[in-house]
Specification:
- This protein is mainly alpha-helical.
- The protein has helices at 37-52, 59-66, 70-82, 107-120; strands at residues 29-30, 33-34, 86-89, 102-105.
- The chain has a single domain (23-120), classed as Arc Repressor Mutant, subunit A (Orthogonal Bundle), CATH 1.10.10.
- Helix 1 crosses helix 3 and helix 1 packs across helix 4 (107-120).
């Protein structure tokens, strides 16, 4: 039975595989452990910040991309805001109605996301 189980490599690109629900680019594993939701959200927002200045995704969109529940995203966003890693930007329609927030990584958040990504791709000597 054990011979039928395929072992994944310890480190490398396979750890950047998206969680169920769609390709997000946020790491699903950090070394030997699964990445916490707040770490995955931070990496996703940091990538969007670098690409276009901000992540214009609803919490539902983030949850779907990462394959987690919206409540988990809400807790992650609250934590990342409290720790100073991201900031929320209120978005409004032309009629003045508030839409979903956009999120942007702060310089501290970008540095932390870089460190998380470096851990994913760290090669043991």
């Amino acid at each position: 039975m054990a011979s039928m189980v395929k072992q994944a490599p310890e480190r490398g690109l396979s750890q950047m595989a998206a969680a169920p629900g769609g390709p997000s680019g946020a790491p699903a594993k950090m070394g030997e452990r699964h990445a916490f939701v707040h770490e995955r959200v931070l990496v996703l927002i940091a990538m969007a910040t670098r690409a276009g200045g901000e992540a214009k995704l609803t919490k539902g969109d983030l949850a779907q991309k990462l394959g987690v529940h919206v409540c988990s995203i809400d807790r992650a966003v609250k934590r990342l805001r409290a720790e100073g890693d991201i900031e929320s930007i209120a978005c409004y329609s032309a009629q003045g109605a508030q839409l979903a927030n956009a999120y942007r990584a702060t310089p501290q958040g970008l540095a932390r996301a870089d460190a998380l990504i470096a851990r994913v791709f760290a090669v043991s000597a």
